[in-house]
Amino acid sequence: MNTLRWILAALILLVLLVWLAGRSGALRGHAPADLGVREGRLKPPARTPNGVSSQADLYPENPMREYARIAALPASGGAAASIGRVRAVVEAMPGCTVVEQRDDYLYAQFETPAMRFVDDVEFWYDPAAQAIAVRSASRIGRKDFGVNRQRVEAIRAQLLH
């Protein structure tokens, strides 16, 4: 019985320490240095199941290509108008901070309230496709439990509304 109490106390302490680490920002990770558009491409999909990319098929060697695949977002009215609509949608979402915006590109970060995990989300108006390419990935952790896909689909729904 005494061993069970020690195990329970250790588990409670571990949960508390992880929660404190999150609240202190230790689980935020660092912004990737290689974000942005290079030769008409956003950064490749993550190599773990923690993100989505509408350009996943451009990276056939990526082991998470199938997991990451998601449709581009609808665009209308050209680059600046399309990116402006995306910005209005994402800024209204909880935990969003817009980091960078150009006429054809938007980079935002989404932070979870409790543990302060950060996801990096990029949008690029692709003039050839006349659509908005999107990439969304968690900074840390091997899995995102579908959070990035759900967020992009919520953005899509608002853009189509």
Give Rg in angstroms: 18 Å
- Total helical elements: 4
Helix proportion range: 25-40%
User: What string, H for helix and E for strand, traces the elements in order?
Assistant: HEHEHEEEEH
Shape: elongated
Q: Describe the oligomeric state of these chains in a short phrase.
A: single chain
Mean pLDDT score, rounded? 92
Give the terminus-to-terminus CA distance: 58 Å
- Let me know the number of strands: 6
- Which structural class is indicated by helix and strand composition? alpha+beta
List the keywords.
alpha+beta, 6-stranded antiparallel sheet
Describe this structure in words.
The chain is an alpha+beta fold and 161 residues long. Helix content is 34%, strand content 22%. It is built from 4 helices and 6 strands, in the order H-E-H-E-H-E-E-E-E-H. Strands 1, 2, 3, 4, 5 and 6 form a 6-stranded antiparallel β-sheet that branches. Strand 3 and strand 4 form a beta hairpin. The protein is elongated and about 70 Å long. The termini are far apart. The model has no long low-confidence stretch (mean pLDDT 92).
